[in-house]
Write a structure and sequence with these properties.
It contains 20 helices and 10 strands. It is α/β, with parallel strands linked by helices and 469 residues long. Strand 8, helix 19 and strand 9 form a beta-alpha-beta unit. Helix 9 packs antiparallel against helix 10 and helix 18 crosses helix 19.
């Protein structure tokens, strides 16, 4: 039988091939095939719709919006495509349009799980947490065993300060498949006295989460019993944190992930500790006592100029592997106007792939880059201790500065980490932290303008002997 030629393949046949490529994760090839379909048949609604999905997967959000709108020209009001359009609009911070699309889709198909779930996520991105919670609970009612809405419900509850419910719901994270399985099955510690036993506390998310919850480790030891038969606490955490945590009360031994631990009787994830101790804004221990070794302080003195200028550390991006980093991170060029304030010196504490942004922006001459010279959080802590102020978008360094009690201005996108709730300039978790919030999603310029004005006031306060305030 003669082989098919391109001319003999119908748009629907090519669509099936494109969809198969798409399903296998061959996104670029799928996009090429969808474009070919649309050249052959510009009115192919599936081609436009699936092209939008593929473009969004690739991160081409604006193009995805166009593709979805072209599909809706062919099938006006289609709720599935309208909901997908809402997702892409949310991605580019066109939240009013996104919410309108999701409302329309949910009104048309109120019993569709995906539509209700996506509506809930969009409401959360708009910092409308009560409404988000209602939509997420509607989605859960439609599909009770789906883990991701349960996890997102937990985050909404924490945003609303409903901590007891939130911590219980927070355990849904273990059902999502997003966290690695533990190497062996060991009973979970629930807060009971563990005299005569060994308890492994393990980190399971980012560095910042470990720093945040390290304040609860001393409370664990209070339930270990007394005397020679007291329970032992083993903390599993990554090497860059170990010097920093070495003097936290209640830790008997530290190990790195993957290191042989030996036998232990119980385990607890470090981010489950707030639930174990029923933590809330009103029941909140102070940050842990973090250790800064002498060698780290000596290194900080070498890295920082020893003068009386106002020294500001800056960080513009968290971990690039964190899926929400795109909205909380900014370009380093946003920070450069701070160097225009008389008396200010900027020091870049940025580490990782984004540390090269400074030279790429041509700013290496006006900002001193020291982040890649810091080999641990203890060394970063020593630098922060010697700075006058840290100004940054949210990441682990914010938790570090806040735990040290050093002045930290945390610049927040519209939908923040739950810790910072939905409004206000302060957080009880870190009394030395000031929060600068986006009023409108994606609108960073007013935030940076305000920070620059307040930075000038801070410099004047130091000259007058009133800094830190």
């Amino acid at each position: 039988m003669a082989s098919e030629t391109a001319q003999e393949i119908t748009p629907d046949q090519l669509f099936q091939r494109a969809a198969a490529l798409h399903q296998r994760g061959r996104i670029d090839l799928a996009i090429t095939a969808y474009r070919k379909i649309l050249q052959m048949a510009p009115g192919h609604v599936g081609g436009w719709g699936n092209l939008g999905v593929a473009l969004r997967t690739k991160g081409d959000y604006e193009a995805a919006v166009v593709a979805y709108k072209r599909a809706l020209e062919i099938v006006p009001g289609d709720p599935g495509i309208t909901g997908n359009l809402g997702n892409a609009l949310k991605d580019i911070d066109r939240l009013d349009e996104a919410l309108a699309a999701h409302r329309s889709a949910a009104a048309a198909l109120p019993d569709d799980f995906n539509i209700r779930y996506n509506h809930g996520i969009a409401l959360r991105e708009a910092a409308r947490y009560e409404e988000a919670l209602a939509e997420l609970e509607a989605a859960i009612a439609l599909k009770p065993d789906a883990p991701h809405p349960q996890w997102d419900r937990a985050i909404a509850l924490l945003h609303l300060g409903r901590f007891e419910e939130g911590w219980a719901a927070y355990e849904a994270r273990w059902k999502t498949g997003d966290l690695p399985e533990r190497p062996k099955a060991v009973p979970r510690w629930q807060g009971e006295v563990f005299e005569g036993k060994r308890l492994l506390v393990f980190a399971e998310q980012g560095f910042g989460d470990s720093i945040l919850t390290s304040r609860l480790i001393p409370l664990i030891k209070e339930r270990a019993g007394e005397g020679s038969n007291a329970g032992r606490v083993i903390l599993e955490c990554k090497a860059p944190l170990q010097d920093l945590f070495s003097e936290i009360a209640g830790i008997d031994r530290m190990v790195e992930p993957g290191e042989a631990v030996g036998d232990y009787d119980l385990e607890v994830p470090i981010m489950s500790l707030p639930g174990v101790f029923n933590v809330s804004d009103d029941r909140l221990p102070p940050p842990a006592k973090l250790h800064i070794p002498d060698y780290a302080r000596k290194k900080a003195r070498v890295l920082l100029r020893q003068d009386d200028r106002f020294k500001v550390g800056i960080v513009w991006s968290g971990s690039v592997t964190f899926k929400g980093n795109r909205k909380r991170a900014v370009g380093v060029e946003n920070f450069l106007p701070f160097a225009e304030v008389p008396g200010v010196d900027l020091y870049a504490l940025q580490k990782g792939p984004r540390s090269g942004d400074l030279e790429a922006a041509g700013a290496g001459a006006v900002v001193t880059a020291i982040g890649e010279k810091l080999d641990s959080f203890a060394e970063t802590a020593a630098v922060i201790e010697a700075l006058d102020l840290v100004i940054m978008t949210d990441s682990s360094v914010a938790h570090l500065a806040g735990s040290l009690g050093r002045p930290i201005w945390n610049l927040l996108n519209k939908a923040t980490y739950w810790l910072y709730r939905g409004e206000g300039e302060t957080t009880p978790w870190y009394p030395s932290m000031k929060l600068f919030r986006q009023k409108d999603a994606g609108a960073w310029e007013p935030v940076f303008e305000r920070v620059k004005d307040e930075l000038a006031e801070a410099v004047a306060a130091k000259r007058a002997g009133n800094w830190p305030r």
